[in-house]
Amino acid sequence: MQEKSLKITGANTTFFNKITNTLTKILIPTKISLNGMFITIKRNNMLKSYEYYKTNEKEFEERFEQSYTNYLEAIDKYIMDSIYKKVKNGTASEMEKNALSKYYEVTSLKENEYVEYKYRKQKYLLELDYQGILSSGKEKIIQKYNEFYITKMESLYKGILKNYSIKLADLTNIYDSSKEWVYTKIFYTLEDYIQNIFSLKIKNNENEQYEDVMPDLKKFEEYTVGKLDVKDNIEKNMVLIGISRKLFTHSLPLVVAEQCYEKLLKDARTLVQDTKIATKRERAYSTLINLIEEYNVKLLSTKVYWDNNENREKYKKFWNKYKEIEKIKETDFIEYVRQKEILFMKDDMKKLHDTKIDYSKIIKYYKRKLVDLGAMKQIQNSFKSQGKYTKNKVKVNV
């Protein structure tokens, strides 16, 4: 009897599970629409509070923050009540599967990276609702929401970048011994901002105050098409840091931008050293020279406070030579390019001698370039070794 009872129980469980799963699949669309209505109500309340908040921040700040929190909680609840159940029941679309995957990716930061989690979860929830608003095609709702969305998202991106800046500056942090991931996140966040938020600002006719960014933006757009190699990625990240100096001066202060440039310089030097094909190495070298100029002219020339006075004096000498070379730009452009290239290589060689990294290959490459440009002399000589005369390595005099 016990065996029969177990069999009956098992059969009943399977039967009721099937019914429950079927009912859940039927009810999910209703749940989604209910959640959709709930989100709409919370969104409208938040937008009303936002309008009051703009007129008087102190008086309406608490009201706005509460309505904003309620709005985000509604979106969060929608993910767990609707998307999660659809994925669990095998009825989710690819978009919904990706949405849930990204949700868990963000929430995984909570335990070890709470500050980043705090900003990225808000960013994720707002992006998710914004996509729903856009898909509705209702222009009035889209226009009404855009101002809040751009303003709030901008503050979230700034918070994320500021958090990364703190990590790079914190010498006691574990990131001090492994900062590569932080740099990657900085470049990724900047690219994400430009593509999704800055482009939206331009569409909303806010580009007039960013005229100085437009040339760099056009350069960046060249790297958004096709597959990028290592050289292209270095150039793209160089443009991103250049843009950040105009858009995120507080979130990514000069000292952090300097570290980002130094990281790119390291990558570019390594690329020149490791590239075997002559034509590709020349292109990598060209990228490195452009990066050296950008670093020295766009960043170091704006640096006011130096930790090391000796480095400050060295840069002054470099800057004076650079300004002298600039004078011949209009009269003899070819000579201007030649002298500028020589200046950059000689200056970089001095810096490479002071590092712990083995840059012997690129120093040798620089010397050959300087010989070709007539900035160094090559002396060939011979010496006697073990009874034989052997040609000595090339000696180069600066």
Verbal overview:
The chain is mainly alpha-helical. Among the domains are: 12-137, no CATH class; 306-398. Helix content is 75%, strand content 4%. The protein is built from 13 helices and 4 strands. The protein has helices spanning 2-55, 57-88, 94-107, 114-136, 139-169, 180-203, 214-221, 230-247, 254-274, 278-299, 309-326, 333-353, 360-372, and strands spanning 377-379, 382-385, 388-391, 395-397. Strands 1-4 form a two-stranded antiparallel sheet. The protein has a two-stranded antiparallel ribbon with strand order 2-3. The chain starts with a helix and ends with a strand. Mean pLDDT is 84; it is low at 1-33 and 381-398.
Poorly predicted runs of 5 or more residues: 1-33, 381-398
**Radius of gyration, in angstroms, nearest whole number:** 29 Å
| Binned strand content | under 5%
What is the spatial order of strands in the main beta sheet? 1-4
Distance between the termini: 100 Å
Number of continuous helical runs: 13
Give the overall silhouette.
Answer: elongated
Give me the count of strands. Answer: 4
What tags apply to this protein structure?
disordered C terminus, 4% strand, 398 residues, two-stranded antiparallel ribbon, two-stranded antiparallel sheet
